Known about the structure:
It is a single chain. The protein is built from eleven helices and 14 strands. By secondary structure, the chain is of the alpha/beta class. The strands form three sheets. A six-stranded mixed β-sheet has the order 6-7-8-3-9-10, with helices on both faces. A four-stranded antiparallel β-sheet has the order 2-1-4-5, covered by helices on one side. The chain has a four-stranded antiparallel β-sheet with strand order 12-13-11-14, covered by helices on one side. Helix 3 (about 95-105) runs parallel beside helix 5 (about 140-150), helix 8 (about 220-230) crosses helix 11 (about 300-315) and helix 9 (about 245-250) crosses helix 10. It is elongated and about 75 Å long.
Amino acid sequence: MDSFGVEARGLTKRFDSLTAVDDLSFEVKAGEIFGLLGPNGSGKTTTVRLLSCLIAPTEGEAKVAGFDIRRESLKVRESVGVLTENPGIYDRLSATENMEFFAEAYGLNDRVERGTRIKELLEFFDLWERRGDKVGTFSKGMRQKLSIAKAVVHNPEVLFLDEPSSGLDPKAAKDIRDLMERMSRLEKHTILLCTHNLEEAERLCSRVMIIRKGSALASGTIDDLRMKLHGKPVLEVKLEEVNEKFHKAAAKVIGVRSVERGEGSSIIFELDDAEGRTPDVVDALVRSGARVKYVNVHRPSLEDAYLELVEEENA
């Protein structure tokens, strides 16, 4: 039986006449990185605030780390780490002093245990050599790493990250992505990643939910969304030259649904199983005398699926 870090059912939040979150239902498995995707103002941040018990839902229910957000809000707060757009670290304090402050705030009262955990995290986030430096001297990427470190100092089961790589340069953004993977894999944190960076979500998330105006448009694995909106991947085979007999030979291969001429000397195949049938198609082409230059399986990106969903909703 699956263990869930987050379970939400009919989660709704209204502010007077504005519905910020509208009947959201989803589950995040323990140790999973789950993406909550949507444009600015879609309800991602409000959802995190609901799940971390910073605000109360108007309707619906949710459990985080096994605790009910309505009846066990204190337990939820003890079990989660939150990174918001405002990192909440103190520039005049050193990295160690910041970590000490937040560790004590989270109830890590044993000095030895606290020191061990802080050293472990600062090493994990490659900040140990700068532990005595004031945070005001840190780069934005280093500050973001420290913000995540202080969010997990109490070793929470569930971590909510709101746009963790926003505004970072490519190197710092990659460092943050690598750290998220390590936290999920090595420290077994369940991570709810709120982002409008679709490339980041595609790299990190096992499943995603796309929301707009507080409502879910679609959810599932990246491949689920691709298939739902774009159908199966297609195979492109580039030849030295195209001949009608090559078309006919390849069209006879089991699993080929359609064959059409592509740009230049390429042929486009729609297959029932692009990965499994590609060797058979290439073999049939070579046997018929074709000289193959390259083979490429085209898969729609998450961005394609996302844009199509949002455009459909706007239509």
